[in-house]
Design goal:
homodimer, 12 helices, about 15% strand, TIM Barrel, alpha/beta, about 45% helix, eight-stranded parallel barrel
């Protein structure tokens, strides 16, 4: 039994930020490998408009080919996405909202209120069909346009998405400005509104603080952490553009702390190596992954001397 | 008044691991910029044999040209190094010992006992001349040859170097395997042997956990942290070979936590950019540095569209 749950978002949140589209066959193989590595919850794709995110244009095909094992989710941004989602056999629908008004407006051209009201019929459909609903609340530690986002504002948005029926709420530090103290304050504030077993942390590693923030969140009682294989969607040459903390980095941190994740680190590293060499043909930024590959390369060099 | 002290080791620990030697003029300019950025304690160089570390072969020249302001230290590996050090005007001598026997033996071909006894006359000379002594105890969280290093063993080596007269002891996680829980355990154990105001943490970022470990060490009461400008000595393409946590990453972490370091982050980033562009002509791995440069490059790209 895993003591913490790693929620793999690479196939959706990672691949949507990769410069090149990955073939549906390779996505299926990625999911198969992630499932084999022990990841029990995976966000597979998004039913977003193909003109908005062409990297995920194959969502309808992909969801017919999901390897068995994990509990999958898919992003459902609006009513059109819901019409596509309901034809698939996926138990968890996910949606987004920002904690900051300006970020929400830049993303979906609507206020937080208008966005949540527009989503309400979809949320009701999800509940009526007995499916689960995951909410991503972004910019919880800071907004690229507004700067600091008060914890009280995040708590208010958490209250609103719970009222819409969200079973799990993933708090996103979208721009990586969080710090351990900020994360502690946030988790304590949110715990007054919602039980922590329904709260996840989705931390970006822009300034190298994701693992410090994960450790703080764990100590405050959070037990679900989002991560992206190898840091998919980021780039080692431009960490400023980096996204989610790498799954390997999280799994290795918890292993070092003696906390079970149920995930096989070697299998993850092998999967990142396959993605890098055979699929993306560009380096992935994950720290543990790069350290493992570097050590392997040095050992090989030593052997061939 | 800074709440934490950042001990800059880039000019010694960083540059000794760079593939190419840096000119003495550039080293003087680096020290001038570090001093101007507010770094109050800097390890300038090492009086090691030039055949062992050619990158620091200019130590005798460099120490005659130290920019005023900071309190400098230099590494004194042995009696020959001491003869060179005593001709310079530097208030702090530093020396190394490993917490693990195998690592110490691989480094200096002697047991920990024999190494410390061989250094005893130098330590006595340092004290007799009214100078201060900084001890680096390495492999405190794990050894590349022996694996886990028990906290009790680190405490024993701390006791030994204090008995030699060390005023400050820097505990080094040489291979970056530490985790927040391990660091907490270690600091608590060491606090039973030595006051924490004489303890520093020297954390490597191999697996991306340095900042998580810094945060844990700070919470346990450590107030001095070693760091290397821009992650000097490491490489963004092979973080497995990375060394010290980057000074910028530490300064930005503490800034986000509202903890004063007295160091100007913008000046550090500008210094790393100068090192990268004008001196080393290879990228530096520091996370905050790379994020800042990436953001600047993207802003420039946007402006030129």
């Amino acid at each position: 039994m895993a003591a913490v749950s790693i929620y793999e978002v690479g196939p959706r949140d990672g691949l949507q930020n990769e410069p090149e589209s990955v073939s549906t066959d390779d996505k299926v193989e990625l999911l198969r490998r992630l499932a084999a590595a022990g990841l029990a919850r995976i966000e597979a794709t998004s039913f977003v408009s193909a003109s908005w995110i062409p990297q995920l244009a194959d969502a309808d095909d992909l969801v017919r080919r999901l390897p068995p094992g994990p509990v999958y989710s898919a992003l459902v941004p609006n009513a059109r996405g819901w019409e596509r989602f309901r034809k698939a056999d996926i138990p968890v629908a996910a949606f987004f909202v920002s904690a900051s008004e300006t970020h929400n407006h830049k993303n979906v051209n609507r206020s937080v209120d208008a966005h949540l009201e527009a989503f309400r019929p979809v949320a009701e459909s999800v509940r009526n069909e007995g499916l689960r609903l995951r909410a991503y609340v972004s910019t919880v530690c800071g907004c690229p346009y507004e700067g600091d986002v008060p914890a009280a504002r995040v708590v208010e948005v958490v209250r609103r998405v719970r009222e819409l029926g969200a079973d799990e709420i993933s708090l996103g530090d979208t721009i990586g400005v969080g710090s351990p103290g900020r994360v502690r304050e946030l988790v304590r504030a949110v715990a007054g509104e919602a039980p922590l077993d329904g709260i996840a942390l989705h931390l970006h590693d822009t300034f190298g603080r994701a693992l410090a923030n994960v450790a703080a969140g764990y100590e405050e009682g959070v037990r679900t952490f989002d991560a992206s294989l190898g840091g998919l969607g980021g780039c080692p040459y431009a960490p400023g553009a980096s996204g989610n903390v790498a799954t390997e980095d999280l799994v290795d941190l918890f292993a070092a702390e003696g906390i079970a994740t149920g995930v096989d680190l070697d299998a993850l590293v092998a999967t990142s190596a396959w993605m890098e060499d055979a699929v993306l043909q560009r380096p992935l930024p994950g720290r543990v992954y790069r350290a493992r590959r570097g050590a392997a390369a040095r050992a090989e060099g030593a052997l061939s001397d």
